[in-house]
Amino acid sequence: MRHKQIIGIDEVGRGPLAGPVAVGAVCIYAEHQRRVAKLFPVVKDSKKLTPKKRAEWRERIREAETLGYLSCAVTFVAPSVIDKKGLSYAIRTAIEKSLEAIEPHLGASLPSQLGGSTSKLGETMVLLDGGLRAPSHYINQETIIKGDEKELAIALASIVAKVARDARMVSLSKKFPEYGFEKHKGYGTRAHYTAIKKNGLTKHHRKSFLKRVIE
After folding, report:
1. The dihedral of CA 134, 139, 140, 143: what is its sign?
2. Which CATH number fits domain 5-210: 2.120.10.30, 3.20.20.20, 3.40.50.970, 3.30.420.10?
3. Are strands 124-129 and 5-12 parallel, antiparallel or unpaired?
4. Residue 11 among known ligand-binding residues
5. CB 23, CB 156: distance < 8 Å
6. What are phi and psi of 52, to 5 degrees?
7. Torsion angle, alpha carbons of 160, 6, 120, 145, to 10
8. Is 148 annotated as belonging to a binding site?
9. How far apart are CA 151 and CA 149, in angstroms?
10. Residue-wise pLDDT tens digits, 125-170
């Protein structure tokens, strides 16, 4: 394999009425790819796993990271940014920040405008789910439809993002128990809409997604 590392990228939380959007990045080092494949023999989108199974996979990802087989990062972008600048901007920002968090573990240089060189990024392949794109200085990248079902690195990125975002929503539920965030994770369930109509909006709600409700 000519690439020394493969980074998978996936986003979680595009559609909820509340909570951040999250982007996960998982970098699998080429020399350990077979070991990682044995640890995760079935590629599955995180949304199709049970919460229990996701937690098990996430723990295995932590173990693989401790062993030096891979690195991972998750970035959240808040509802206030989504409302102000749009969902596409928020996801793009989260992708950039997750990749920046991974870069030191690549041995890859920073972009030239920051005083470095992009040469070592040529040894890195970035695989992204759906319609996602990485910054242009990642010269080797591919967007794959249903990539979370086809590529292990993307599937693992989906898991770390989903587990992290769900944990964030459970944490918010302790501050705002009347909304039931621990159950629906911010998505637009009937119970969530009922809670909004009864209690109003929190700063964690996406007002741009709720214009009809609050008008």
Report:
1. positive
2. 3.30.420.10
3. parallel
4. yes
5. no
6. -65, -45
7. -90
8. no
9. 6
10. 999 999 999 999 999 999 999 999 999 999 999 999 999 999 999 9
